[in-house]
Amino acid sequence: MKTKYSFILSEEGNYSIRDRCTWLGVSRSGYHDFKTRPKSFTARWREGLTRMIIKVFHASDATYGYRRVCAEAARKGWPADPQTVRTIMAEQGLVSVWTTRRRRGPKTTVPGAGNYPDLINRDFTATEVGTKLVGDITYIPTWDGFAFMATVIDLATKKCVGYAIADHMRTDLVIEALAMARRNGAVKPDAIFHSDRGTQYMSAQFEKYCDTLNIRRSVGRTGICYDNAAAESFNGTLKVERCDRTAYPSVEHARKDVTRWVELRYNQTRIHSSLGYRTPNEMERELLLTAA
Q1: Domain ranges of the chain
Q2: pLDDT tier at 26 (50, 70, 90 boundaries)?
Q3: pLDDT confidence of residue 34
Q4: pTM for the whole thing?
Q5: Tens of pLDDT along 105-122?
Q6: Mean pLDDT of the 248-277 span
Q7: What percentage of the chain has pLDDT greater than the value 70?
């Protein structure tokens, strides 16, 4: 009976109450009682949760799936079972932009260059800020050609602590990104910096710069993207959640927009499951307070 009453209510304004009740074989008095009956606590709670889910989803710019929406809703005072959140998102037509699609940009590697070990060994975790860093170069299409972005990610916080964006991918690009990380206080003496075997990272110029910072070099194997999965993961997030959804007229437009995304979205408000659904900035603050 409740289903019939709900359907009659959903058609309000399209047909008269008399017609709707007659067609479904219910009394008008019964429908009136249903319509005026106070909502149960469960119904009111679900309505409130639904509003919070919608708010969290749109605040994420449609990038959160049900697990992150569930975690963020709990952070805001609305804890719920993940499957309940998943069901509500489906009912509301809330679909994340994430797909399994990945595109890899142009990259030149030097198979036998350098004599650096792999000090990470796919252990992309750290307990202290500034001790284990990973870097990579990705590309961003613009109407004027590619923009190239070099990044430095702190494995303790997953924070993008350094980056540089330009219309070239010379060694200067990766040095500029690492220099930014140093200015941000994110490179401690004897820190590990891990990368792939791209020509920029294997150059004598970059080696010399790392030596001046007392950085230990670490590289993965040629053509094995999993050896630098943390840096690749950041690139994928950037592409799916921002760049693939944005048209950039120029490299400068891309630089400004990606900078805002990194500083205001990725580092500041985007929660990470690997950080216990904290943001990189929150994790950084916690680790620095613990170390103090």
Answers
A1: 1-36, 41-99, 132-291
A2: confident
A3: 73
A4: 0.74
A5: 555 555 555 578 899 999
A6: 96
A7: 91
Question: What's the per-residue H, E or C state across the chain?
Answer: CHHHHHHHHHCECCECHHHHHHHHCCCHHHHHHHHHCCCCHHHHHHHHHHHHHHHHHHHCCCCCCHHHHHHHHHHCCCCCCHHHHHHHHHHCCCCCCCCCCCCCCCCCECCCCCCCCCCCCCCCCCCCCCCEEEEEEEEEEECCEEEEEEEEEECCCCEEEEEEEECCCCHHHHHHHHHHHHHCCCCCCCCEEEECCECCCCCHHHHHHHHHCCCEEEECCCCCHHHHHHHHHHHHHHHHHCHHHCCCCCHHHHHHHHHHHHHHHHCCCCCEHHHCCECHHHHHHHHHHHHC
Specify the CATH architecture of the domain 132-291: 2-Layer Sandwich (3.30)
